[in-house]
Design goal:
This protein has 406 residues and is mainly α. It has 18 helices and no strands. Among the domains are: 87 residues; 180 residues, Serine Threonine Protein Phosphatase 5, Tetratricopeptide repeat (Alpha Horseshoe). The termini are far apart.
Length: 406
Amino acid sequence: MTKGIILGAFLIVVGIGLYAYYDRYIRYDREAQELLTEGRLVYERGSREAVNNAINIFSKVIARYRGTHAELEAYFYMAQCYEKLKLNDYAYLKYIYILKSSRNIDPVLKSEIKARIARLKTLRYHTDEGINQLLGLLNDTTDRGFRSRIYTELGYVYLQMGEYRKSKQMFDFARTENGDNEEAILGKARVYKRLGNADMAYNLYEYFLKCYGNFSHYAPDVRRSYIDQVYRSGYESFKRGNYKSAISYFNRIVRNYPADGKGENSLYWIGESYLAQSKYSTAIKYFDKTLDNYDFRKDEDARIKKGYAYFLMKKFDLAAREFQIYINAYPQGKYIDTAKKWKGMSTQELLYRIQNRMIPDAEEEKIENSRKKEQTDKKPDIPKGMVGAGESSAADDIDYENVAEI
């Protein structure tokens, strides 16, 4: 009986000890890691609001779990948040605090922090000290992943300093060490853009989105930036009269992101580009694509321009039909007056041709000359942006922010 009591008491004491150990260390560490994970996930959303929310979460970790490894990790992630917000001085102080406050810091984390400190020093003072510190770190490690990271940091330093050739070289070195270095790929694309080689930049962005777009936390920002920049390049090329380049840029959006809001506009401006080159049949094909998709924001423009393209091809019956479709579909449309005038002109051209077939050849030339003079006097205004090859257009003065409207 006594032995049973002793054994029972022993088991109770062991149980209490195990529970105390679990509560003090295992659950404590698990809760800290869960909170850290939550902070990282919020940070990876990328928006300014998300980064600020992540800082609040990491602050909770620091307040609740002092003296633990989780506290150091929280400081490290908080410093990254400050870098994201361009608060480099705050980031620098956090990194310095980690190095000074912990003697048993993980060697990998320590090397990472040193690399970030060197980069921040360079960005802060634009001196060679930070660059030399980064280069010095290369001699201290054979870890290819870390070396790739150092080269990437150097690439961004040189990019910030405007030394684009050196920047590209560093990003190339980074990708040699680690071909999957996302930041190096994006950095090299930015270098190409700064060097004026937009096509190479867009090729790299497309490569990144194809290979990493499904899982990289950079992907949403890169995708939006890519679409905006390519669209802007296409529109600026169109305004300068570089229609082939414009078509090439707009086709990138149509090919890769047809469902994006700028997909409709891109189809329309491809049609405009062919129209400006007097390639009327191809222009009509793209105006039809603009009309046939799910988006309606450029349908009015496409319909009126399709009629104008038929008119320039002297297919006046088809032109009249398109202008009539516009009149029926958009009785209060922005081009309603123009559609009515061009419908009348198209019908009149048809009548002239019918009449000319019944008039002797001797008088046909006289009537044609009289008709041309009459049409010159009566010709209505072409809608803003509605011009053929060789004509100038008020569309050249369109503000980029309002490109959806002609």
